[in-house]
Design goal:
With about 625 residues, the protein is α+β, with helices and mostly antiparallel strands. About 25% of the residues lie in helices and about 30% in strands. It is elongated. About 0% of the residues have low confidence.
Length: about 625
């Protein structure tokens, strides 16, 4: 009988859709190529790899020689590839049909390219919920991995130095084997410790042990020979340890204890722990804390519902729509991210998700049969109705809280121009046409990306729906006077209307008090472009000297730009070949800011047009905007 310690070495790699080519290339050079090449040199070291479909597809296209080498390692059963979701989704947030669809998509890919059907699955970010057992089992997964902290949360007391015995877990009569992953052991053997002493210590405690060890080069270790050195050390341990794969031992496991694991424990998103670039926060808690992630999640739910309701009899379009939807379910959306592993704060990751969701929506719509509409329903899953304007080219989503736009899709470019990010928390999600009331004399120098100094921010205040006209696609909102707030005598009325390829907004401000009031009115407008610089964005002030003489004054700016006496602004989105024209009925002064984050770079472009005015008691003041989008 083999008394050696059974060691399962594992590695996980994934980059979300939207990661640039340089990001994939860095991961390939630092992690993937050195690991696969080292395994080829050390045939006595077996390993299990979890590479997402996104990553495998990139390797197949960009590094075919390594793709072939990976196939050879699989053929000689030295490596086992895990299954799971093709786009590394957060399983706990998916409908049942999407869980199974994602798993089947990766299984089909692995069988097609390597002739191997995966038997096990790595749970992204270890975000476990017990009802995952059924779909995993039904999709052919016989084992999964959970970290040792989850065993502790399930009430399983560790042996000396950790957890070394798999168990089974069950839900609705479905079973799956669970291997505990020892992160501590992974750090120990991946560091400068002595693997021999570690394995000897384990053998002295018990000879019938199975230990799962994650292997990953530490962030400060840049040696291209890291895996060669590690496997050289491990090769000398063969008399003590059998480096095996789960499929080789799972059938021989007998008498496993049944354990039920609680869901991922919620943690404070601002102080989340990281493991391999993955968030350790409960994803449901994450989408509640970050509305930017919550909006993407809500749109995936919305698109999923549309697919099932509108494409019941069209299998080809339904399959194509689901494939686009799956791309937007990437787990990268539900973690902050890091320099080497992009997440929510990285604009290209969010933009890739929105692009896929809009492409899915375009597949759902039948050409020539889409009817412009205004509907009201709880789109963003917050318990309150949102106002959804749609025509053949534009989706415009408005909340009653702030009566501003929180999503603006231009379907021909598959682009959400309000895919913004609030870098500093506390001021609410960055939207378009969010109102401010500010002290008289406020100028552009008193504005900042966070808003207006000493101004009243109305973006979190509730506007009443005063008149909804679905036929004309017009919605009127009113912010009542509130004398308990600064400039509380001012009542704001906003009327939105969707016209062909444009959104119009009419303001009516009224002084309901008994005396005149002087103040500055502003509406904050954020728009998110592919980037900044001449390659991405060109901006112009448009001045009409007369009907036949139009002058365009180019804006050259990096972080901020001040402009005066403006009525029309033109933004040329170079990458999407789109023109956005913002026109005001009154001239204004403003600064334009580019919003950046230290982690994710460019997020959006913001302007706060300023309108100084004095309103006598009972008097009103009007202002109109037009936002046109054309290819």
């Amino acid at each position: 009988m083999d008394k050696r310690l059974k060691v399962i070495l594992c590695a996980y790699c994934h980059l979300p859709s939207g990661t640039d080519e340089a990001g994939f290339d860095r991961l390939y050079k630092k992690e993937i190529k050195p690991l696969i090449s080292a395994l080829d040199k050390y045939p006595g070291i077996n390993m299990v790899l979890d590479y997402s479909g996104v990553l495998l597809y990139w390797i197949e296209r960009r590094k075919p020689e390594l793709f072939m080498l990976l196939g050879e390692l699989l053929s000689r059963k030295q490596v086992e590839l895990l299954g799971g979701g093709f786009y590394d989704p957060m399983f706990s947030l998916l409908p049942l049909v999407d869980k199974i669809g994602q798993i089947e998509m990766l299984t089909t890919y692995l069988r097609k390219h390597f002739g191997k059907k995966p038997q096990g699955c790595w749970i992204p970010s270890m975000t476990w919920e017990q009802n995952l057992v059924g779909p995993l089992n039904s999709s052919g997964m016989s084992y999964i991995f959970l970290d040792d902290r989850q065993f502790l949360n399930a009430g399983i007391e560790p042996c000396s130095n950790g957890y070394f015995h798999p168990c089974i877990t069950e839900d609705q009569g479905k079973l799956i084997t669970v291997f505990p992953v020892s992160e501590t052991m992974g750090k120990e053997i991946s560091g400068e410790g002595n693997p021999g002493m570690t394995f000897q210590r384990l053998l002295e405690m018990h000879s019938e042990r199975i230990v799962v060890i994650p292997v990953k080069m530490s962030g400060d270790n840049e040696s291209s020979f890291f895996y060669d050195d590690l496997f050289d050390k491990l090769s000398s341990m063969v008399p003590l340890a059998d480096f095996c794969t789960p499929s080789k031992i799972i059938k021989s496991l007998k008498g496993l204890k049944r354990v039920y694991f609680p869901g991922t424990q919620p943690k404070d998103p601002e102080n989340q722990q990281e493991h391999g670039g993955e968030s350790r926060i409960n994803p449901r808690n994450f989408i509640a804390h970050y509305p930017e992630a919550g909006n993407i999640y809500a749109k995936t739910v919305y698109i999923h519902t549309l697919i099932n309701n509108r494409l019941r009899g069209d299998k080809a379009r339904k399959r194509a729509a689901f494939e686009e939807l799956y791309k937007a379910q990437d787990s990268g959306i539900y973690r902050v991210g890091s320099a080497g592993s992009p997440g929510l704060f990285h604009s290209p990751v969010r933009k890739a998700a929105y692009s896929s969701l809009i492409e899915s929506e375009k597949i759902i719509r039948e050409k020539g049969k889409f009817k412009p509409s205004l509907s009201v329903f709880d789109y963003d899953l917050d318990g309150e109705g949102e106002y959804i304007f749609q025509d053949d080219k534009i989706n415009c989503y408005i909340k009653s809280r702030g009566a501003d736009i929180f999503e603006l899709d231009y379907l021909p470019a598959a682009w959400n121009y309000l895919d913004t990010m609030s870098v500093n928390r506390g001021t609410g999600q960055r939207s378009a046409f969010t109102d401010w009331l500010a002290p008289p004399g406020t100028g552009p120098e008193q504005t900042a990306p966070e808003g207006i100094w000493q101004g009243r921010y109305c973006g979190t205040e509730e506007y009443e729906a005063a008149d909804i006209d679905r036929i004309r696609r017009r919605a009127k909102f009113k912010l009542p006077a509130n004398e308990g707030l600064p400039w509380g005598e001012i009542e704001i009325e906003k009327t939105w209307q969707l016209k062909k390829s444009s959104i119009t907004l009419d303001y009516l401000l009224k002084n309901t008090g008994n005396h005149g009031i002087s103040f500055v009115f502003s509406t904050q407008i954020d728009l998110s472009f592919p980037g900044i610089g001449e390659r991405f964005l060109r901006s112009f002030i448009v001045r009409e000297e007369d009907r036949e003489n139009i002058i365009k004054e180019c804006l050259i700016f990096n972080d901020t730009c001040t402009m005066n006496d403006v009525k029309i602004l033109e933004f040329q989105d170079i990458e999407n070949e789109t023109l956005i024209i913002l026109e005001s009925s009154r001239n204004f002064n403003s600064r334009i800011f580019h919003i950046n984050s230290d982690l994710g770079g460019y997020q959006s472009t913001c302007l706060l047009p300023l309108y100084p005015l004095t309103l006598e008691a009972g008097k009103t003041w009007k202002l109109s905007f037009s936002l046109k989008i054309n290819s």
